[in-house]
Design a protein that fits this description.
Blueprint: H1 2-28, H2 31-56, H3 64-74, H4 77-92, H5 100-110, H6 112-124, H7 133-171, H8 175-204, H9 216-239, H10 243-247, H11 251-281
InterPro entries: Virul_fac_BrkB (IPR017039)
Protein name: YihY/virulence factor BrkB family protein
Keywords: Cell membrane, Membrane, Transmembrane, Transmembrane helix
Length: 286
């Protein structure tokens, strides 16, 4: 019993020795203020990002509704309705495909959020941007495009994964069992995709060399935390938060900004966790 208590105390002390410096870093780096800036850039980037994704749909077996379905899983109802309505209006007013200059402008606008996130993570590591402007912006654009393709693959996997699984399991006479398994895998798949996206962001964004393993804890925290917070916030807004009665027609935008703000806090804190772990292990090299 004494050994068990001693072990518990050591674990508790170890946890507190990590949490206290983490809270100090969060306060010193003004995470809430940075999250507010990041939420603003996320808002500016959202619709160009979605427009670019939808522009790529004719080259895939996906439809516009597939993208809306992915958003609907996590976004609050009012926010989802506003996003769907706005995108439908924008796409219905577009004449033909995107021109080359339109593609460049759309991608540049969509990368604003990633560029702001890179600056936030640099602050988490207490470093300034040392890369040339064009290199840093080019990296933000490449990461934005990569993120788009990752989410398109995430949308394709359920479609083709389900078809392949049904084909294999039906030959074994286990199609009913497969559907039960697939119902669980559908919810496991999204956090895994999110984890890979966050891992790439935390590894590539800071303007210093870090080990990929150092980026894993923050990626785990961000992917799990974002899913939990998004679902919890969606539930709260749907059943308790009546923003429309306070803000009227812009209630959907206010909810969207709050969602982005909370998401930004989760993402930046993930970066702070990685930074602290890297400092403790001496793995962060400028």
């Amino acid at each position: 019993m004494g050994k068990g208590r001693l072990k518990f105390r050591k674990s508790k002390n170890k946890f507190m020795n990590f949490v206290k410096p983490l809270i100090a870093k969060i306060m010193d780096n003004d995470v809430t203020g940075m999250a507010a800036q990041l939420a603003y850039f996320f808002l500016l980037s959202l619709f160009p990002l979605l427009i670019f994704m939808i522009t790529l749909l004719p080259y895939t077996p996906l439809s516009q509704e597939d993208i809306f379905h992915l958003i609907k899983d996590f976004a609050p109802t009012e926010t989802f309705t506003m996003i769907q309505k706005t995108i439908n209006e924008i796409m219905s007013n577009r004449s033909g495909g995107l021109l080359s200059i339109g593609i460049i402008g759309t991608i540049w606008s969509a990368s604003n959020g990633m560029n702001a996130l890179m600056r936030s993570l640099n602050r988490a590591y207490d470093v300034t941007e040392r890369r040339p402007f064009l290199l840093a912006r080019g990296l933000a654009i490449l990461m934005t495009i990569a993120m788009i393709f990752v989410f398109l693959v995430a949308l394709l996997l359920p479609v083709f994964g389900k078809q392949i699984g049904l084909f294999i399991f039906s030959n074994l006479g286990l199609s009913h069992e497969f559907m039960k398994i697939w119902g669980i895998l559908r919810w496991v798949l999204s956090p895994i995709i999110l984890f890979l996206v966050f891992l790439a962001i935390y590894y590539l964004s800071p303007s210093l060399k870090i080990k990929c393993t150092t980026a894993i804890p923050g990626a785990i925290f961000a992917s799990i935390g974002w899913v939990i917070v998004s679902l919890g916030f969606s539930f709260y807004v749907s059943y308790f938060g009546n923003y429309s009665s306070t803000y009227g027609n812009i209630g959907g935008i206010i909810i969207l900004m709050l969602w982005f703000y909370i998401s930004a806090i989760i993402i930046i804190v993930g970066g702070e966790i990685n930074s602290l772990i890297g400092e403790n292990k001496g793995e962060c090299k400028i």
